[in-house]
């Protein structure tokens, strides 16, 4: 379910008061593949409710280049929001999820194993309010870049 950025912080507070452990992750999730699904299932396993911060189209372009995203933010939100592991989707337009995390204050923040506490700007915020940061190993050979490359190879 897509929820507004204005409402997500209060909503997560209600969940926590109800005894639920809120987990947060974020990313582009441009072309959904098995690596994404595996990652999101693992992220969800760290708590009771998974909130996914989804990069807007403008922030995907800023992070990935002018040819991305392939799918629009609303299409991406609909697809990831339909996954069993994802409870709520919220759009954000910044380069990092720092501002959104400061609002949501998840109990657990999850990112891919290609990050470390030192390279993850959001980690300082999460640990500052007593939250936990977890890293999930990526599924080898599964990436949107690989999917796009396969498609391009088929064009020849």
What does this 3D model show about the protein?
With 156 residues, the protein is an alpha/beta fold. The protein has one domain: HUPs (Rossmann fold, 3-Layer(aba) Sandwich), CATH 3.40.50.620. It has seven helices and five strands, in the order αβαβααβαβαβα. It has helices at residues 5-17, 34-44, 57-64, 73-81, 98-104, 121-128, 144-155, and strands spanning 22-27, 49-55, 88-92, 108-112, 132-136. It has a five-stranded parallel sheet, sandwiched between helices. The longest helix is centred in the first third of the chain and has 13 residues, at 5-17. The termini are far apart. The model has no long low-confidence stretch (mean pLDDT 92).
Overall average residue pLDDT: 92
Q: Give the CATH superfamily.
A: HUPs
Helix content: 40-55%
CATH architecture annotation name: 3-Layer(aba) Sandwich
**Largest β sheet strand count, sense and barrel closure:** 5 strands, parallel
Separation, N- and C-terminal Cα atoms = 39 Å
From the 3D structure, determine the CATH topology: Rossmann fold
| Helical run tally | 7
Largest beta sheet: what is the strand line-up?
3-2-1-4-5
Task: Note the quaternary state here.
Answer: single chain
List keywords for this structure.
Rossmann fold, 5 strands, 5-stranded parallel β-sheet, alpha/beta, single chain, globular, 156 residues
What is the secondary structure topology, with strand pairs?
Blueprint: H1 5-17, E1 22-27, H2 34-44, E2 49-55, H3 57-64, H4 73-81, E3 88-92, H5 98-104, E4 108-112, H6 121-128, E5 132-136, H7 144-155
Parallel strand pairs: 1-2, 1-4, 2-3, 4-5
